[in-house]
Amino acid sequence: MSQRIHFVASKTEDAQAALATLRTQYGEVPIDEAEVIVALGGDGFMLQTLHRHHARGLPVYGMKLGSVGFLMNQYQPDVLRDRLARAVPTTLHPLCMDVQTESGSAVTATAFNEVSLLRQTKQAAHVRVYLNGAMKLDELVCDGILVSTPAGSTAYNLSAHGPILPLGSNVLAMTPISPFRPRRWRGAILPAATEVKLEVLDPYKRPVSATADSYEVRDIVEVTVRESREQTMNLLFDPEHNLEDRILNEQFEN
């Protein structure tokens, strides 16, 4: 693994202190000259880093200095060069979200974890579900619905009782949030190449928002979600604590 490092850090006190220490200890090159990004923070900051820098195509090695660190390695500053040399890459394929709003505008965004739809008021959302152009659910009554990548399957998807997906499984999780009708539908596992269209029924009375990771679009009428094969991002992990093992082990946690 290359040693031309650019450091980024969340704004927390611990992350900023670590940033100063690592810059002094290892030096730093500008982002345009870097061959690896080292991100200091939690999972939320890692997602920010992926969104901010995914166009550069640089691998990212995270160290945990936040409350949640599923996408991060442990913080051990004294052996960083050795860890980068041994790091194992995991390739992420993000989701592309295309949204149509009530006002007629079109919005596109990228999600490395999930695309989620949520009701904006106390009224339940009514959503029609299409897969590859074929209608699969005429009317899903729910608080929301999400489509998750394998990397994001242990986040919001798991909280909504969705399945944990192994990396490399080439599938996506579609998970309803507090579904009311149909009563027995609890979601689906889809081939990664599936194009998902979610149509909001009665958007004026029952407004719905769509979120790609943390980017929200309100008052939507239709969302199309598909996996992007063109955009990829490589996360680097210590061999003894890689993301694939973490996702596997998560299925046996109490």
TrEMBL record:
Q: Which cofactor does it need?
A: a divalent metal cation
Annotated localization:
Cytoplasm
Q: What Enzyme Commission number(s) appear in the record?
A: 2.7.1.23
Binding-site list for NAD(+): D43, G44, N113, E114, D143, A151, T154, A155, Y156, N157, L158, S159
Gene3D superfamilies, alphabetized: Probable inorganic polyphosphate/atp-NAD kinase, domain 1, Probable inorganic polyphosphate/atp-NAD kinase, domain 2
InterPro entries reported for this sequence: ATP-NAD_kinase_N, ATP-NAD_kinase_PpnK-typ_C, NAD/diacylglycerol_kinase_sf, NADK
Q: Which reaction does it catalyse?
A: NAD(+) + ATP = ADP + NADP(+) + H(+)
The keyword Transferase belongs to this UniProt entry's keyword annotation: yes
The answer, when asked if Transport is one of the entry's keywords, is no
Q: Which UniProt keywords apply?
A: ATP-binding, Cytoplasm, Kinase, NAD, NADP, Nucleotide-binding, Transferase
Q: Which residues form the active site?
A: D43
As one GO molecular function, the record gives:
NAD+ kinase activity
Tell me any Pfam family this protein matches: NAD_kinase_C
Question: Which PANTHER family does the annotation name?
Answer: NAD KINASE (PTHR20275)
What functional role does this protein have? Involved in the regulation of the intracellular balance of NAD and NADP, and is a key enzyme in the biosynthesis of NADP. Catalyzes specifically the phosphorylation on 2'-hydroxyl of the adenosine moiety of NAD to yield NADP.
What the record says about family reads:
Belongs to the NAD kinase family.
Q: Tell me the protein's name.
A: NAD kinase
Which species is this UniProt entry from?
Tahibacter amnicola
